[in-house]
Amino acid sequence: MSSTSAEQTTQAVSHTVLVVDDEPVSRTGMAARLKRLGYRVLEAGDGKAGLELLRRERPDLTILDWMMPELDGPSVCELVRRDPEICSSQILMMTGHDQPDQIAEGLARGADDFLSKAASSQEVAARVQAGMRAALMIRRLEHATGEIRRKQDAIERELQSAARYVESLLPLAGPLLPGVELAHAYRPALTLGGDLFDVLRWDNDQIGLYLLDASGHGVAPALRSAGLSTFLRGGGLRHQPGSRDPGGILTEANKQFPLSEEGNYFTIIFARLDVKTRTLSFASAGHNGAFLHHQSGGVTWLKNSSLPLGFSVPNLYETIRLPVSLSPGDRLYLFSDGVYEVPAPSGEMWGQERFAQAVMESGDLPMADVITRSVERAAQWLGHGHFPDDVAVMGVELKDEASVNGERGNTAR
In this structure, are 136 and 198 located in the same domain? Predict the structure, then answer.
């Protein structure tokens, strides 16, 4: 035996070939040829038995006779290709009538190659080896695909864990202070969202609240958002001058969070609500998604021309105080652009004004219902519920005196 033949035989030992033929003499002869080449050989006397063996043993290559009773070769091929567990099996169709139309039919019904029953030993060896090479490539691809899927599953589990952490940074809906109530909606476009909001309870009369939006999507913006949120809610600002001043807070945040190397940045609106004096002041860094919905009707927008965080260092952000006092029933809404930069199938954007109109139209409902309905209206405009950008909406309501006294009484008891 030549060195090449010995090498081929050694390589073949680990490979299995299934021969399916209802003619015992033909099947035995083919099996003998394959065994001499070093292959492990399985035999089946009809299409049904061959299909069962193929499913159970998963051979590297199946040599399948065309003409068989009950279940012929092409029918077996079709059943194999429809079965996701074995559809990638390599099938070599064996026939005594290798006419062009027959070959075309066999290939169309699922065969990978053809082998004449009159083929020489050299041709049998060559076609089987070619089938084995294809089978090996498919097995490697399947293994690689499986590894990729397992890694993707692991990454998805980690992303879900990170998403739960990011969402844990969001405030709980409900009473914030006596006379102040919070409601919100949060729908990240991906597993991890780059939009975040929170409430800072400074004392019994004052709260700070903000909504930030990180440019980009995915893990990096979400982690940057978590970092900025941690900075805003942590002790980093406590000892800074004007630590309760919205403009001063954004000025300091601008120093701490410059543009990333990829050019990513934050927009943010930060507001301060004084319940005792019923005053509202705010500062904005490139974010104009906020308005006050008055109980008496109409809205006051919280808008200011300013750069996002990190665009210019140093940069002083201005605190703007609303000229009107808040009244019981007034509601402040902070929201990200993902809820109004929503394209209809025609391409027309929903826009801030339509979002504000949706809020006003359902303004008599509880604030949580108003937010839910408004987001649903945006989804209806979009035509489906998968928003292209993160959606974050936060609402804060100033309650009437009866509600405040009731809450204080409940707290005292």
Answer: no
Q: Is 209 within 8 Å of 396 (Cβ atoms)?
A: yes
Distance, in Å, from the CA atom of 182 to the CA atom of 339, rounded to the nearest integer, reads 18
Determine the pLDDT at residue 149.
87
Mean pLDDT in runs of 10 for the chain (413 residues)? 46 79 93 94 95 94 93 94 92 84 89 89 92 91 87 77 76 91 88 82 92 83 84 65 82 89 89 94 93 91 91 88 92 94 94 94 92 95 89 91 47 37
Would you state the pLDDT for residue 9? 46
Q: Which domain holds residue 203?
A: 169-412
Distance CA(280)–CA(341), nearest Å, equals 26
Domains of the chain: total:
2
Q: What is the pLDDT of residue 235?
A: 56
Compute the distance between CA of residue 26 and CA of residue 99 in angstroms, rounded to an integer.
Answer: 20
Q: Is 210 in a helix, a strand, or coil?
A: strand
Question: How far apart are alpha carbons 180 and 178 in whole angstroms?
Answer: 6
Enter the DSSP assignment of 322: -
List the structure tokens of 401: 């005196």
Residue 161 lies in a domain: no
Across 264-275, b (16+ Cβ under 10 Å) vs e yields bbbbbbbbbbbb
Q: What is the 3-state secondary structure (H, E, C) of 50-119?
A: HHHHHHHHCCCEEEEECCCCCCCHHHHHHHHHHCCCCCCCEEEEEECCCCHHHHHHHHHCCCCEEEECCC
Provide the pLDDT for residue 49: 94
CB under 8 Å to 166, separation ≥6 — which residues?
192, 193, 196, 222, 225, 226
User: Which DSSP symbol is given to 316?
Assistant: P
Question: Residue 104: how many CB atoms within 10 A of its CB?
Answer: 10
Which two three-digit tokens encode residue 138? 């498919």
How confident is the model at residue 406, as a pLDDT? 47
Beta strands, E only, 155-205: 174-177, 180-187, 195-201
Distance CA 413, CA 402 (A): 17
In a domain, 160, yes or no: no
Kindly give, in sequence order, each residue whose CB lies less than 8 Å from that of residue 73, ignoring residues fewer than 6 positions away: 20, 47, 64, 65, 66, 67, 93, 94, 95, 106, 111
Buried b (16+ CB within 10 A) or exposed e, 1-19: eeeeeeebeeebeebbbbb
CATH number of the domain residue 259 falls in: 3.60.40.10
Q: What is the CATH number of the domain that holds 116?
A: 3.40.50.2300
For 19-39, the DSSP string reads EE-S-HHHHHHHHHHHHHTT-
